[in-house]
Amino acid sequence: MEARLNLFDNEIATKFAKRFLNAGLVIDESPLPKATQELVKIRASQINGCGLCTDMHTKEAAAAGETPVRLNLVAAWREATVFTEAERAALALTEEGTRIADIHHGVSDETWSQVREHYDDDQLAALVSLVALINAANRLNVIVRNPAGSYEPGMFASMTS
């Protein structure tokens, strides 16, 4: 499989990617737990069918010490006992925020209440921003059909400089 457009070899796309990745640094440096960040990225990417992002974030999570059991159960998090209540609230927000067009009310008051129980304003700001950012990344990659499977942890770290 070959991408329709090589976003990594196009001047405009490369400029955009650097700015996009730099925006992600704000979230990376936030008090939102790193494990939660990766779970959110994985779940949104699964929903959106973004192979590249699913590949990237499962590998990044594994490299950071995430367990195979948790990684394998992200798609079935509601039925899994390996996630904390805070992580479950973040995953619920991720699903509703990702499927926003499918739900007439967007994120439900119940889900919002659950995330408010577990996250302070700074963490919540990072979480909401992360859901928006990963959905944008998924859309870029799905549109151009970027293939998955060859990502190596830390591969894009040099692009943020």
Automatic annotation (TrEMBL):
InterPro entries: AhpD-like, AhpD_core, CMD-like. SUPFAM superfamilies: AhpD-like. Residues 21-96 form the Carboxymuconolactone decarboxylase-like domain. GO terms for molecular function: peroxiredoxin activity. Keywords: Oxidoreductase, Peroxidase. This is Alkylhydroperoxidase AhpD family core domain-containing protein. It comes from Amycolatopsis arida.
